[in-house]
Specification:
Blueprint lengths: L7 E5 L2 H4 L9 H4 L17 H14 L4 E5 L2 H4 L8 H16 L3 E7 L5 H5 L7 H17 L5 E6 L1 H9 L11 H25 L4 E6 L2 E4 L4 H19 L8 E5 L3 E4 L6 E2 L15 H9 L7 E5 L10 H17 L4 E7 L26 H15 L1
Parallel strand pairs: 1-2, 1-11, 2-3, 3-4, 4-5, 5-7, 6-8, 7-10, 10-11
Antiparallel strand pairs: 8-9
This protein binds beta-D-glucopyranose.
Beta-D-glucopyranose (BGC) binds next to loops.
């Protein structure tokens, strides 16, 4: 395999899904409404990483990972508008210092789906004031913590947040509202670009954005199917990345799905029958495709998420192995892939699905699953080469 010596082998989490004590976020009231979370659970404890973050770092070390992607909860940093909580900032500082001590590269996400409740109340990113608020928050964090992490990203998956909250309505705020979706789309682009510019004025920080990118192929090659696939790629990927492409030092790619398309029913299908616990079909070769398609931005690429809900841990070992094989092929073919973060380090609160989906290399009780050791052995093999 062709992995460079500096390649990052890690896993990812997000604050809201793992930390607990999420009462200051805009999801808090929403998740307590019966019917919103499939198993009637809430995120108030989650994996308790707010208290158990040292255990999380231990798992990273035990499984020989050299990188960790996690997010900062804006709601904890700025619990009311304009008031920053120094103790919350210091909490993340402690984590970053420990990661450095342990030689684990940190990739930190500033926004992984949740807003402070006060911002949610005035419309979240549908409100144009969010651009200024987000830039101010990003600036504050970089001034305080910028030198402690190697890589920073603004948003996680703007597309998914916009779609699930306003078009599919299974996430907060859960009302079908295409106009609100459009306003969020515009404002999140502006917020990213504005935060990027502000951060770059503070120093030589590496700043990217993370997007969810699916692989699209034709069911049968013909003129109309080919056009359909081009349209799908445009609306899935291009419209989300292009407006930020001049303001990113790298692209974070979250890959989960591959679709076959055709112009007659069923318009959309999945090429494989092997499915995860969600029912999503597994097609790791799509990872190669999305990497190659996204070399067009001319930026380094990190696979910031790629994971499988697999409680029995039967699919995960091959899933990880195949991810690394596809990345290896992409690197061989010239793609500048710099790291891979499995989703997720831990089982966690999976938004509307509560605790029903188990993506973790380890359980919430920090029991490390056998697949994590398969990952460890692959890392050892690839790093020692
Ligand atoms: C999100 C994660 C989520 C994962 C699995 C990704 O789109 O970034 O927060 O847990 O999908 O559903």
């Amino acid at each position: 395999m062709n992995f460079p010596k500096s390649f990052l082998f890690g896993s990812a989490t997000s604050a809201y899904q793992t930390e607990g004590q999420s009462n200051l976020t805009d999801w808090h009231d929403w998740e307590f409404v019966p019917g919103h979370i499939i198993d009637g659970s809430n995120s108030m404890v989650a994996a308790d990483s707010w208290n158990k973050w040292q255990d999380d770092i231990k798992i990273l070390k035990e499984t020989h990972q050299n990188a960790y992607r996690f997010s900062i909860e804006w709601a904890k940093i700025e619990p009311s508008e304009g008031n920053f909580d120094q103790s919350a900032i210091d909490h993340y500082k402690e984590i970053l210092i420990e990661l450095k001590k342990q030689n684990i590269t940190a990739l930190v996400t500033l926004h992984h789906f949740t807003n402070p409740a006060w911002l949610g109340k005035i419309g979240g990113f549908a409100n144009p004031k969010s651009i200024m608020y987000f830039t101010r928050y990003a600036t504050k964090i970089i001034k305080e913590l910028g030198d402690l992490a190697e890589l920073w990203t603004t948003f996680n998956e703007t597309k998914v947040l916009i779609m699930k909250g306003n078009l599919q309505t299974e996430w907060f705020p859960g009302k079908f509202n295409p106009w609100r979706a459009f306003k969020m789309y515009k404002n999140m682009i502006k917020a990213h670009n504005s935060a990027y510019i502000a951060i770059k004025k503070l120093g030589h920080y590496e700043v990217g954005i993370v997007q969810n990118i699916s692989a699209y192929v034709v069911k049968k090659p013909n003129f109309f199917n080919n056009i359909l696939v081009k349209i799908a790629r445009y609306f899935d990927t291009t419209i989300f990345i292009k407006p930020t492409a001049k303001h990113m030092d790298f692209l974070g790619v979250n890959y989960y799905m591959k679709f076959e398309l055709q112009t007659k029913a069923p318009f959309l299908s999945h090429p494989n029958t092997l499915k995860n616990d969600y029912g999503w079909s597994i097609n790791q070769e799509g990872l190669y495709q999305v990497i190659m398609e996204n070399t067009r931005w001319g930026k380094p690429i990190y696979i910031t998420e790629n994971g499988v809900a697999d409680e029995k841990d039967l699919i995960r070992p091959d899933f990880i192995k195949q991810a690394l094989e596809n990345i290896d092929q992409a690197i061989t073919d010239g793609a500048p892939v710099k790291g891979y973060f499995y989703w997720s380090l831990l089982d966690n609160f999976e938004f509307a699905s509560g605790y029903t989906m188990k993506f973790g290399l380890a359980t919430i009780d920090r029991q490390i699953r056998p697949s994590a050791f398969v990952y460890r052995d692959l890392i050892d093999k690839l790093i020692s080469k």
